[in-house]
Amino acid sequence: MSSNSKLDAGPPSGGGIPAITGEIDHSRAIHIFPESLKPVRSTILAYSASIVSTTVGFPLDTVKTRMQTHKHFSSYFDCVRKTYLNEGVRGFFRGIYAPLLSTSASKSLSVLIFTAVKPHTYNFIYSGSTSSYLRDHPLVCNAPVCFFTGAIAGGGVSLFACPFEFTKVYAQVAKLVQRKSLKEIPQESLDIEKYMKQKFTTAEAIKHIVKYKGLAGLYSGYKYHLIRDSLSSGVYYSIYESVKWTVNSLIPSDTVGVSPISIGIAGGVSGIIAWICIFPVDTTKSLIQNDIVTEILRKESGLAPLPKKNRTLVRYGRKLYRGLGISVSRSFLVNMIFFGAYEFSMAHFA
């Protein structure tokens, strides 16, 4: 957003409301980056903000994934209780290293692509437009620009993020899948100690996937991952910037810049709406990836593969929204923290 007390009514050159943040007010800077790091300043700050938000929200993500892929949990509380009793606190953070690297990198890459592409999207959409209202009104002008730019950013990032996310899902559900498979192994040939020692770390998950499915196995469920990330990023950025502009324009204030209240509200609302829109796609992706985890662990245990399941969006109805409540809560928290930390650092770290 711009650094004036209220956001400009008309779009600056280059396309609508400025992408994510505007110019730095150097009088408020609390840290100055060395000249050599200034070109990658926004990437560093986005990565750092994402590490914090990912760590805070990861336990809720674990509960969400387990609720999506396993029916024996009767409620969120039941899932939390059983996870803690069987695996301790570590069970909630199983597989966190992959997203700490990938989600943080994906978020910073997404912001980088969005910021770079947005002016070009604006020029493409409005280059021949004769309607001054479309060009000049911030919300009307900005929403489609942000949606299409966000979709491009999400699609691009999905190529990088899919292997890491599948590794995360593998680590999150492997213990549950393994517990089911143990019931089919003859007791005389069951090595309990061996199975108890399996920790399903990020490194072990990658090793298992590549061993049994090859490198292409890391992209299991990619079609749905691509749809999810493209759609969610489009909704995410368009809602974030629109809500931030609207809330900020309603807050009576003489202070310079964007109110932290508008940033927090916009971050939380954008996360909620984006997740509601793409949750069925995410559930389908998780179910497909859970099937692959099951197939791999059954092969390792010498068990016959299960019949392939027909995983489609239309087949499950309301079941596709199983785990939505905790996902919405997590998304609100994570995005409020991310955008709050990112916009604050962008305004104060020059």
Automatic annotation (TrEMBL):
It is a multi-pass membrane protein. Solcar repeats lie at residues 37-120, 141-246, 258-348. InterPro entries: MCP_dom_sf, MCP_transmembrane, Mitochondrial_Carrier. It comes from the Eukaryota. The keyword Transport applies. Pfam families: Mito_carr. GO terms for cellular component: mitochondrial membrane. It is found in: Mitochondrion membrane. The keyword Iron does not apply. The chain crosses the membrane at residues 261-281, 320-342. Gene3D superfamilies: Mitochondrial carrier domain. Keywords: Membrane, Mitochondrion, Repeat, Transmembrane, Transmembrane helix, Transport. GO terms for molecular function: transmembrane transporter activity. Belongs to the mitochondrial carrier (TC 2.A.29) family. PANTHER family: CARRIER PROTEIN, PUTATIVE (AFU_ORTHOLOGUE AFUA_4G06390)-RELATED (PTHR45624:SF9), MITOCHONDRIAL BASIC AMINO ACIDS TRANSPORTER-RELATED (PTHR45624). Mitochondrial transporter that mediates uptake of thiamine pyrophosphate (ThPP) into mitochondria. This is Mitochondrial thiamine pyrophosphate carrier 1. It comes from Pichia sorbitophila (strain ATCC MYA-4447 / BCRC 22081 / CBS 7064 / NBRC 10061 / NRRL Y-12695). The lineage of its organism: Eukaryota, Fungi, Dikarya, Ascomycota, Saccharomycotina. The gene is Piso0_004225.
